[in-house]
Amino acid sequence: MQIGIDKIGFYTPSLYLDLVDLAHARNEEPDKYLIGIGQEKQAVIPATQDIVTMGASAADQILTEEDKKDISTVIVATESGVDNSKAAAIYVKQLLGLDNFVRTVELKEACYSGTAAIQFARGLVNLNDKEKVLVITADIARYGIGTPGEVTQGGGAIAMLISVNPRVLAIENQSVSYTDDIMDFWRPLYRSEALVDGKYSTNVYIDFFNKCWNRYSEITDRSFDDFSALIFHLPFTKMGKKALDSVMEKEPENIANHFGTQLKFSQQLSRQVGNLYTGSLYMSFLSLLQFNSELVAGNRIGLFSYGSGAEGEFYSGILQNEYGDVIDFENIETMLNNRTKVSVADYETIFNSQIGYTSTDVVLDTSNDKSKYVLSGQKDQQRQYFVRK
């Protein structure tokens, strides 16, 4: 029985920051960001959007009323939780109008938990093949204004429907996970911005990829010849290149060039949006499918998931022949092209306007947010959401 991704949708808000403008404002050469980091634009998240509204928007793009009847579980994977107790999945379930006889849960392990959610979802579907599981990866990457990590901020959500007979990617059973207690990136409960040792984190990422790939290759007896593409979690696009280069050093030039080309396809959306944390790997997957017109059904794709702290996993999937009909690539292109550019000053104002950690009532100006799902503020220490009709 094949189980995997039957549908996949993507959402990011309607504002962006041009990183050339940011470079000038920070007295940096633009190529440090455009080439050295590999980013061009960065999603700017208004105060009226959070992981709940973005996750609901991503899911809304892919769900039919029939799908909603078949969903048994909603899993939200995030490291940008809005409550230390209540799962964001409950809010999402309510906004989407799902039945109350639905299981809801939130998962956390830095950027990795989206992959854990997919694996858990596969297990649930295996128990009852008539059910579908909605997996949402939603995050807002925040490091702080003027920090070294500022250029790798971003945000958005990916929604995936996991079912039998998937039309996008059939996930193969063998995978390899690797975990070690490492402080390369963390965010204490009292902070909305992450703390990170960037160079150390990059080295850990590369090391974990090598460990996972080598173990996977030993167990499956597969080599690079068995794959059409390798895709990576991309907190910034250059990170994936560093990992790929580490295993391509001893490979023939034609093999290295092939996988390098596939990597470039998978980087395109990341360059325009920035870091999605839990959703970054799956945005890479969407990007690969959108920009590589030569992929065909039966191609095997390798996926490397990583979350600081740290955990990595390498697994694989087989591309299905209906993926081009299921994924709305035109909608993704339109959404990105129709975004509004903001100045660095406006970006800084928006960055500092988030609700954050406060017990006071907050009323947000929602007049400029035309999204279907909107955060309108906080009342009696409870977040207030509404669905725009």
Automatic annotation (TrEMBL):
<keyword id="KW-0808">Transferase</keyword>
<comment type="similarity">
    <text>Belongs to the thiolase-like superfamily. HMG-CoA synthase family.</text>
</comment>
<dbReference type="InterPro" id="IPR013746">
    <property type="entry name" value="HMG_CoA_synt_C_dom"/>
</dbReference>
<dbReference type="InterPro" id="IPR013528">
    <property type="entry name" value="HMG_CoA_synth_N"/>
</dbReference>
<feature type="binding site">
    <location>
        <position position="143"/>
    </location>
    <ligand>
        <name>(3S)-3-hydroxy-3-methylglutaryl-CoA</name>
    </ligand>
</feature>
<dbReference type="InterPro" id="IPR011554">
    <property type="entry name" value="HMG_CoA_synthase_prok"/>
</dbReference>
<feature type="domain" description="Hydroxymethylglutaryl-coenzyme A synthase C-terminal">
    <location>
        <begin position="256"/>
        <end position="353"/>
    </location>
</feature>
<feature type="binding site">
    <location>
        <position position="242"/>
    </location>
    <ligand>
        <name>(3S)-3-hydroxy-3-methylglutaryl-CoA</name>
    </ligand>
</feature>
<feature type="active site" description="Acyl-thioester intermediate">
    <location>
        <position position="111"/>
    </location>
</feature>
<feature type="domain" description="Hydroxymethylglutaryl-coenzyme A synthase N-terminal">
    <location>
        <begin position="2"/>
        <end position="164"/>
    </location>
</feature>
<dbReference type="GO" id="GO:0006084">
    <property type="term" value="P:acetyl-CoA metabolic process"/>
</dbReference>
<feature type="binding site">
    <location>
        <position position="275"/>
    </location>
    <ligand>
        <name>(3S)-3-hydroxy-3-methylglutaryl-CoA</name>
    </ligand>
</feature>
<protein>
    <submittedName>
        <fullName>Hydroxymethylglutaryl-CoA synthase</fullName>
    </submittedName>
</protein>
<feature type="domain" description="Hydroxymethylglutaryl-coenzyme A synthase C-terminal">
    <location>
        <begin position="175"/>
        <end position="247"/>
    </location>
</feature>
<feature type="active site" description="Proton donor/acceptor">
    <location>
        <position position="79"/>
    </location>
</feature>
<feature type="active site" description="Proton donor/acceptor">
    <location>
        <position position="233"/>
    </location>
</feature>
<dbReference type="Pfam" id="PF08540">
    <property type="entry name" value="HMG_CoA_synt_C"/>
</dbReference>
<dbReference type="GO" id="GO:0004421">
    <property type="term" value="F:hydroxymethylglutaryl-CoA synthase activity"/>
</dbReference>
<dbReference type="Pfam" id="PF01154">
    <property type="entry name" value="HMG_CoA_synt_N"/>
</dbReference>
<dbReference type="InterPro" id="IPR016039">
    <property type="entry name" value="Thiolase-like"/>
</dbReference>
